Amino acid sequence: MSLHIVSKSPFSSTALADCLTSFIEGDALVLIEDGVYALSGALKSQPVVGPVYCLAADAQARGLTIPAAVEAIDDDRWASLCTEHNPIVSWFR
Prior knowledge:
The protein is α/β, with parallel strands linked by helices.
């Protein structure tokens, strides 16, 4: 299934909301860059069907706590997820 990558904050972009409208069972979500700001509440208000990952370094750089329901990953795991999913969709609008 699809790997969705969100790189923009849900507080300044519709990228996360747009992503989640096309999300189906079996898809996975990776939060990177300012997309990790979704960890501070935006994900709680919107149901997600599949696994949610975030780049640990990006969350740490922004002083965010990673909830237990989100798997913190490094760049190697992110690359691995990219080989496990097809297609890969980047959301940055």
